[in-house]
Structure formats: C-alpha cells, structure tokens
C-alpha cells in the first residue's frame, strides 16, 4: 500500500513562466472584460518587452526584471476598451487592439510577432538608445524587415514622437544596408554577371535619367531595391518611383524591382528573375547608349 504525502505549500517569488501564465489567465478572466461585452477566450498573447524577451532579444530586459507583463487582447468595444490607457490588472497590462496578429508559439505560450511587440514596447521607454537597440536588433537579428516595424509604429501613431522617429531613420538605413548586402550575395552566389553598382544614368547630352542600385549596360537591365517605408509620404514615394521607372523604360532600360523580404526569404528566386531579364535582353529593342556615372 502506498500513501501520498502532500507537499508543503510553495514559498518564494513566482517563476517567469508562472507570471506569464498568470497574466494570460487574467486576460481571459471576467475582470478583464469591458462592461456590456462578452468574453472572447483564448485570443490573448504576450506582447511588449516580455514578448521581446521570449524572442531572445539581447536588448530587452529579462523577464525577471519586468514589473509587469503586457498582454495583447482583442478590442471588444465598450467604454473600457476605448479608454486612452490600457486596462491594468494584477501583474498584467492589457493592450487592446482591433487588429489582432497571428501569435507565434514560444515555450508553449502565444507571443506577439516581433514587429507588433516592438510597437507595444517602445511607447513606455524613455531611453532613446534602448529604443534604437531594440529596433536595430529586430532587423540585424533577421526577425523582420524594417517596413513591418514601421507599419506597426505607424498604425500605433508613434512616428510623431521624436525619439522613435530618430530610431526609425536609423532602422531604415540599417535595413537598406543589409538588403544591399544580400543583392551582392545574390550576384556572387548565383553566378550573375557583375553589374555596375550604385550608378547614375544620363542620356546623351547629360540629361539625368535616374539612379539605380545595379546596372548591366550590355543588357540594358537595371536593378532597383524597393525599400520604401510605409509612412505618411508613401503615396508620394510611390509616384516618384513610378515616374522614375517610366523614364528608364523610355530609354529602353528594363527595370527589375526586388524587395528586402524577398531577398531574405527567396534569394535564388530573385536571382532567377534577374537572370531571365538578362537572357531575354536580346529579344527587346536595344537600350539607348546612356552614360553610367558613380552615384
């Protein structure tokens, strides 16, 4: 015969996992639901600095150092959901949103994607350098492209804050440098002919046509990195890009656009697109004899 001996009650501080699960339980509880609305279960996820810590960001504080856990929950309507500040709960802060992203599972917990977690984390940070480090790590670490981060910051109306706007400028510069590095890698690894990198094209007589990231003069093919940020001036940037492409095509130049995310996720496929443009150049009217100058 065996006897089960009850364990003594546990003492001490809760572990990080216990805090995370407690915050999720609170988000699913009746106390977290605005008056006059019904509870929507199992649609909460860890966000903010806690999510970044779970994504293993070195620039994020450890879970043990956080005073509270941010939890992203659906906006169910009602007065409380429209309050200007998130609803506070025991060891948790609820961040309500009408656009709930698809969570990622980390250690069995639902966690917001990096771009969304950043948008929920940076408003409460006053250290400009920490904001810059978090945004930079998101790109350098390969978690997401700058455009995804800017999209979430724009949606949260945070780009008007000077310290965030400055950090975003550095983020975009970092993202472009990484994407350019992948373009060089694409040419090298996939055996493409060496182009003229970062050049300005001018028509006979000196008329400026445009600047391109790479150009193959013997084929009349230009490569352009499409890294335009989704910001308030996106429409103007798109119009300028379209006009530039039209000018290049007027001189018989074929323009191939690549994006940072496709260079990261489908480098071989992008190399095939460029190779096809180069191989079929003989089937098109030859490009005008343009001057190729350093940018």
Summarize it:
The protein is of the alpha+beta class and 295 residues long. 39% of the residues lie in helices and 18% in strands. Helix 2 runs antiparallel to helix 3.
Widest sheet, order of strands: 10-9-8-7-11
Segments where pLDDT lies below 50 for 5+ residues?
1-10, 79-85
**Percent helix range:** 25-40%
Distance between the termini: 86 Å
The computed structural class is alpha+beta
What is the N-to-C succession of helices and strands?
A: HEHEEEEEHHHHEEEHEHHE
How many domains?
Answer: 2
Number of helices: 9
Protein name: DUF559 domain-containing protein
Walk me through this protein's architecture:
With 295 residues, this protein is α+β, with helices and mostly antiparallel strands. The protein has 2 domains: 16-177, no CATH class; 180-294, VSR Endonuclease (Endonuclease, Chain A), CATH 3.40.960.10. Helix content is 39%, strand content 18%. It has helices at 16-27, 48-54, 114-121, 128-140, 146-155, 162-189, 234-250, 260-265, 267-279, and strands spanning 45-47, 69-74, 87-89, 92-97, 104-106, 109-111, 196-202, 208-216, 221-225, 254-258, 291-294. The strands form 3 sheets. It has a 5-stranded mixed sheet. Strands 1-2-4-3 form a 4-stranded mixed sheet. It is elongated, with a radius of gyration of 25 Å. Mean pLDDT is 84; it is low at 1-10 and 79-85.
